[in-house]
Design a protein that fits this description.
The chain is an alpha+beta fold. It has 13 helices and 23 strands. It has a 7-stranded mixed beta sheet with strand order 3-9-10-16-13-12-11. Strands 20-19-21-22-23 form a 5-stranded mixed beta sheet, with helices on both faces. Helix 2 packs across helix 9. The two termini are about 35 Å apart. It binds adenosine-5'-triphosphate (ATP).
Length: about 425
């Protein structure tokens, strides 16, 4: 990573910590490697991102929701191929004892540079635990490494109970766990993370068309969150890079401060998963098509994105530093519909007449918006704080407000200020939200 990118990334993390977005897990005990806690603003931003995704996916007639359990029957992981094949190459440095994922072409230890490293061996990334009081093989369970399998095993439950016809999709948001050898870049690659996955069931014939449809749909959704077209890129997986289950795969990559990396994965998984579950469970999972009057195993188009990775990407995209009167102004240019605070109400002084107006305005606005009420400190410092947490608008109540029933709206991006009537603020927000 260049110094400039390193600097940008550490600035983002430091604002996240200082302003209540993200804290290291169990920090008072020294933290736990690769685990993070979302603070008050972090969880709000995360929930906003999940809400946008969920609504985009399920507010249509051909996609339903699901919330499957994290623990699943251990045979699920045999059928899916995870028990045998979900591994990364692990190597040890004989000199400094560092343990790392052996990337292609790597010949030296990434920690000390020694060439004295072991041959790689397969390391399974699934977390193992035991269900019930016996630590026997028969009670072994795994923390799911992806949410997708919960959807496949429920395919017929959902199709039949909801009387759905193919094509249709199932969307799910939930935690996934991978014992990554080398977690990196804070929440970019962690061992516990959240996924938003949608599996779309279609006939084989139509699968290529639906792949193209979802590819475009996903890109448009990411752009609607505020990403710029120039920082998102499609990357096609070549035949030899394809995962064992995939007929076709494409990633949407984002230009993170340290380089271009996968943000979302799109796969045509064929009928691999359903046919494996049919084989291992002994239960028929075929869909009966009333039009063609025949049964078949549908193909699956998958879209899969990590909430945490999206969170980091959106903050990286929105982070800006500007020079204002010889001081650095830091800000997150977040879109109004995902910003954790949408409007800040700031009384200019602690005079009771001003506080009264500001408090009543704030509680009115709370019915519809995420509001922060802040009455302490200089107005300049309060504006800076709002810039740093990405609040698109501040409403300042001053002495004149008591006379003319107007307030000052301050725009985050341009810092422009304008006076509008207090009663028109709600409509102003509606008109200016994007
Ligand atoms: P990578 O190559 O980055 O490890 P992957 O190809 O294994 O990712 P998928 O299995 O396709 O990832 O998972 C789908 C999405 O889930 C990824 O695009 C990413 O957004 C997210 N994701 C996967 N692994 C992690 C992780 N360890 N931490 C955070 N997010 C993750």
């Amino acid at each position: 990573m260049s110094n400039k990118s390193q600097n940008k990334f550490s600035q983002i993390l430091s604002v996240c910590k200082a302003r209540g977005f993200l804290f290291p897990s169990s920090e008072i005990y020294g933290g736990l490697n690769s685990c993070w806690d979302y603070g008050p603003l972090g969880v709000q931003l995360k929930n906003n991102l999940k809400k946008q995704w969920w609504e985009n996916m399920t507010k249509r007639s051909d996609v339903t929701g699901l919330d499957a359990s994290i623990f699943m029957h251990p045979k699920v992981w045999e059928a899916s191929g995870h028990l045998d094949g979900f591994t990364d190459p692990l190597s040890d440095c004989r000199d400094c004892k560092h343990r790392f994922r052996l990337e292609e072409g790597m010949t030296t230890c990434p920690n000390c540079g020694s060439k004295n490293i072991t041959e790689s061996r397969d390391f399974n990334l699934m977390f193992k635990s035991f269900m019930g009081p016996l630590e026997a093989e028969s009670s072994t369970v795994y923390l799911r490494p992806e949410t997708a399998q919960g959807i496949y095993v429920n395919f017929l439950n959902v199709q039949q109970s909801m009387r759905l016809k193919i094509p249709f999709g199932m969307a799910q948001i939930g935690k996934a766990f991978r014992n990554e050898i080398t977690p990196s870049h804070s929440i970019f690659r962690t061992r516990e993370f959240e996924q938003m996955e949608m599996q779309f069931f279609t006939s084989k014939k139509e699968s290529a068309r639906w792949f193209d449809y979802w590819r475009e749909e996903r890109m448009q959704h990411l752009l609607s969150l505020g990403f710029k077209e120039t920082e998102l890129h499609f990357k096609v997986h070549e035949k030899e890079e394809l995962a064992h289950y995939a007929q076709k795969a494409e990633d949407i990559e984002f230009d993170f401060p340290w380089g271009r990396r996968e943000l979302e994965g799109l796969h045509n998984r064929g009928d691999f998963d359903l046919s494996q579950h049919q084989k291992f469970s002994g239960k028929k999972l075929q869909y009966f098509c009333p039009v063609e009057n025949k049964s078949y195993l549908p193909y699956v188009i998958e879209t899969s994105i990590g909430v945490d990775r999206l969170f980091l990407a959106i903050l990286s995209s929105a982070y800006k530093e500007e020079n204002v009167n010889n001081e650095t102004r830091k800000l997150f240019k977040l879109s109004s519909h995902i910003a954790p605070v949408q409007i800040a109400v700031l009384p200019l002084s602690k005079k009771s007449a001003l506080l009264e107006i500001a408090e009543s305005l704030s509680s009115d606005l709370q019915k519809e918006w995420f509001v922060e009420y802040d009455s302490s400190g200089s107005i300049g410092k309060r504006y800076r704080r709002q810039d740093e947490i990405g609040t698109p608008f501040c409403a300042t109540i001053d002495f004149e407000s008591c006379e003319d029933n107007k307030l000052t709206i301050r725009y985050r991006d341009s810092m422009k200020q304008e006076r509008i009537s207090i009663e028109s603020l709600n409509n102003f927000l509606k008109d200016n939200f994007k």
